[in-house]
Amino acid sequence: MSRPACARIDLAALTHNLSVARKSAPRSQVMAVIKADAYGHGVLQCADALKSADAFAVAGIDEALVLRAAGFEHRILLLGGIFDPAELDEAAAQNLDLVVHDAWQLAALRNWSGAKRVNTWLKVDSGMHRLGIPTTAVAGVAQELAALNCVRKVRLMTHLACADEPGSAHTSQQLAEFAACSRDFAGERSIANSAGVLAWPDAHADWIRPGIMLYGGSPFVGGNAQADGLLPVMHLESRVITVRDLAAGEAVGYGATWKTDHPIRMGVVAMGYGDGYPRQLGTGTPVLVDDQPARLIGRVSMDLITLDLTAVPAVGVGSVVRFWGAGLPADKIAGLAGTISYELLTGITARVPRVYC
Ligand SMILES: *Cc1c(COP(=O)(O)O)cnc(C)c1O
Fold first, then answer.
1. Which of 138, 146, 256, 335 minimizes the number of CB atoms within 10 Å of its CB?
2. Active site residues
3. How far is the CA of 54 from the CAs of 118, 143, 194, in angstroms?
4. β-bridge pairing 55-58 and 251-252
């Protein structure tokens, strides 16, 4: 038997969550965001489960070429556009849509001598102040792009910084800025990430760009994905590999940071930060053992963690331990680790087999 750590991926849940996104924004086309190996879930299997999406979005050309090589003919948007003018030939040959977020990318298109034409999405900085051209430049740049021989279509997009805070004044301001600077633009627009899809109907526009919600994560701090009708897609699991009885006063794990104050029954599980389970999760973190609640004790190490199994006498060697997934939201564990479910999901390392069901 091989090491039992695995990420079970429920592709039916992924497809279900896509339908939630569609129902949330019924007048918009859906661009499923599958960057970073589909948020750690495995991009080819996820793209197949999401094939009814109207388009895919990835971070850069390498992620898109994997999809094209596997035969996906969807519209694919490169969210960062090109990183080097040398990418233009291949991007055009593979019919990839490009974000244009900076004057150097515009210049690269202007100077490009390729015979093919590409679709562009002009990214506007409406207040996030990360990528995008200033709102004051939109009309001019959109016109200049549209006039280039190598450009087929121009669309507009922007990204929201605070859509995860319901009622955020910053978001209302961004929506107003984007609407004002694009008032005379005749083409399609895209604004909403998952938080925009779920909480900001005014941001739905022509194309939504859901990511985390497809994977069953909540985009909201302290959010409850289940309440939004979303199902967890990744179930991170392993098995108990040994059970020991410890007397009072014995220390467990590296640093001997945790000591029993009464006799306990301890289980060791094949899971650690080498798998992407955060090391900062400490004593008290909840897990499910054969679907019953138990708690972490001591430090997370690279390959192993330790549990207090005193309260679950029926479990033993071979019992299934779930770290997140059904019954234990990744969002909850992320909160305990001081991060967000996005980071937990994308952080699962290559040695953890993804098992599809
Ligand atoms: C990653 C990304 C998204 C998806 O965001 P979620 O919060 O995961 O829904 C949407 N738009 C852009 C530009 C992104 O980079």
1. 256
2. 35, 254
3. 18, 26, 16
4. unpaired
Pocket test for ligand 1, best of 209, 233, 340 (most atoms within 8 A of CB): 209
Q: Which two tokens stand for residue 91?
A: 């991007």
- Distance in Å, CA 237 to ligand 1 centroid: 27
Ligand 1 pocket residue status of 155, Cβ below 6 Å: no
What three-state secondary structure class fits 220? coil
For strands 151-158 and 189-190, give the pairing. parallel
| Residues 62, 107: Cα–Cα separation, whole Å | 22
Please, which pLDDT band fits residue 130 given cuts at 50, 70 and 90? very high
Whether the predicted pLDDT of 281 surpasses 90 = yes
> What is residue 292's predicted lDDT score, i.e. its pLDDT?
98
d(CA 41, CA 345): 8
Are the C-beta atoms of 206 and 189 separated by less than 8 Å?
A: yes
- CA-nearest residue for atom 15, ligand 1, is 79
Q: Which residues of 337-352 are buried (b: 16+ CB within 10 A; e: fewer)?
A: beebbbbbbbbbeeeb
- The CA distances from residue 184 to 125, 138, 171, 206, 282, in Å, are 17, 10, 22, 16, 54
Mean pLDDT of 248-262: 91
What is the per-residue pLDDT for 290? 98
Residue of 6, 284, 181, 15 lying closest to 173 (CA atoms): 181
CA of 193 to the centre of ligand 1 (A): 5
Collect contacts of 131-135 with beta carbons under 8 A, ≥24 apart.
Answer: 131/80, 131/99, 131/101, 131/102, 131/159, 132/101, 132/158, 132/159, 133/101, 133/102, 133/103, 135/177, 135/178, 135/180, 135/181
- Give 127's DSSP letter: S
Pocket of ligand 1 contains residue 267 by CB under 6 Å? no
Give me the pLDDT at residue 182, please: 95
What is the pTM (predicted TM-score) of this model? Answer: 0.97
**Tokens linked to 191:** 């604004």
Residue 91's CB is within 10 A of a number of other CB atoms, namely: 22
Q: Token pair for residue 175?
A: 């929506």
**74 CB less than 6 Å from ligand 1?**
no
pLDDT at 222: 86
